[in-house]
Amino acid sequence: MSEPQSAPDPRGAAPAPRRLKPAPLLFEPPEATADPEHFFDLESIEDPRELLSRSTELALAFRAAADRATEFQAMAAAQLADPRRFDRLPLAVLAERADWTEDYARKMVEFGRSLMRDGGTRPDEVG
Q1: CA-CA distances (angstroms) from residue 79 to 29, 40, 90, 124?
Q2: Are 112 and 77 within 8 A, CB to CB?
């Protein structure tokens, strides 16, 4: 298995070194998120084999969630840029809202259109 890689920066800039606390996930108890050292109870696992296994599971789950979120971003971008919409957004506005370059916004719109054309789940159909 290869080392985890960061997602490429859509603006083409080198990633700035920053340390952000991840957003609390819906299933993480609120009292646990109040403790800045708490992260899915990993800090309480003493066996390194178990820690590696559990942290790997989480890393794969987060990677899958990030991929799925990107698909939803692309579908939303395609919908917002749809020329049939009376309130369609120009690529420049879409790019600004998503913190993308216009070129990346164009690629995301194309990706979103292909997902919807190929039967991907539409954001408004998820419940």
Answers
A1: 34, 35, 12, 11
A2: yes
- From residue 82, alpha-carbon distances to 102, 104, 109, 110, 114 in Å are 15, 16, 9, 11, 13
| Among the listed residues 10, 5, 4, the one whose alpha carbon sits nearest the alpha carbon of residue 91 | 10
Question: If we measure between CA atoms, which residue out of 121, 119, 32 comes closest to residue 76?
Answer: 121
What pLDDT tens digit does each residue of the chain (127 aa) get? 444 455 555 545 444 444 445 555 555 555 555 666 778 888 888 899 999 998 899 899 999 999 999 999 999 999 999 999 999 999 999 999 999 999 999 999 999 999 999 876 555 444 3
- Rounded Cα distance between 80 and 106, Å, is 12
The 3 state secondary structure assigned to 29-69 is: CHHHHCCCCCCCCHHHCCCHHHHHHHHHHHHHHHHHHHHHH
